[in-house]
């Protein structure tokens, strides 16, 4: 083998290792109850901000993680898998029944998932380095529901949430923290006006309720359905960059 060929192979290996080190790592969880994928920050700091991605019902940790490469460079990004298995590569945070025309949830499963995610944030401290004062949740559909449920009941654990095509569970309202504890919580809401799974009105109702708690969410609506399109992603990405604690 020629010297030049050896040099180029070595460079290629180094590039591959470098790319891998900040993109996809599959977690062999030792101290956490949830399986997750990890993207290390591209900009190295001792305690980077943490972003936890939460998928929707029937999805998995790969769904939102497909955006990870383009999320802000200074975040360590985690994409968690829901605890309930529905099928091959199909998971959820709780069961939900749409047969009546309105979503009917399994309340005990939803509560178990809420507590599990709160514990998950704490347990992650033993596995990765991050700033516990800069923890953000970003969820789609049922993942957005869980983002509301965790942040509004345990705001000391979360700096901000991005809720995409989700809803605020009425079952969680009695457990929401008082206004003083919530005052620093940052919230991003996005929802498609043509959403046939979780009606757009859910987003409007959540916005109205949050304002009664003296919160001022950033609200975005789109002429789209139950999905995450490029504009939605660009908007949430901008929100993450501009709302990060400096």
What keyword list fits this structure?
disordered N terminus; 34% helix; 246 residues; two-stranded antiparallel ribbon; 7 helices; eight-stranded mixed β-sheet; globular; alpha/beta
Largest sheet: 8 strands, mixed
| Main β-sheet, spatial strand arrangement | 1-2-4-3-9-10-11-12
Instruction: Give the % helix.
Output: 25-40%
Instruction: Indicate the proportion of strand residues.
Output: 15-25%
Low-confidence parts: 1-26
Please report the total strand number as a whole number. Answer: 12
- What number is the mean pLDDT? 89
Using the alpha-carbon principal axes, give the shape.
globular
Radius of gyration: 19 Å
Q: Strand-and-helix sequence, N→C?
A: HEEEHEEEEEHEHEHEHEH
- Total DSSP helices: 7
Question: Which class of secondary structure composition applies to the elements?
Answer: alpha/beta
Distance between the termini: 51 Å
Brief account:
With 246 residues, the chain is of the alpha/beta class.
Structure commentary:
With 246 residues, the chain is of the alpha/beta class. Helix content is 34%, strand content 20%. The protein contains 7 helices and 12 strands. The chain has helices at residues 3-22, 62-65, 107-123, 142-153, 179-182, 200-212, 230-243, and strands at residues 25-26, 36-39, 50-54, 76-80, 84-87, 90-92, 96-97, 104-105, 135-140, 160-164, 186-192, 218-222. It has an 8-stranded mixed beta sheet, sandwiched between helices. It has a two-stranded antiparallel sheet with strand order 5-6. Strands 7-8 form a two-stranded antiparallel sheet. Helix 6 links the parallel strand 11 (186-192) and strand 12 (218-222). The protein is globular. The termini are far apart.
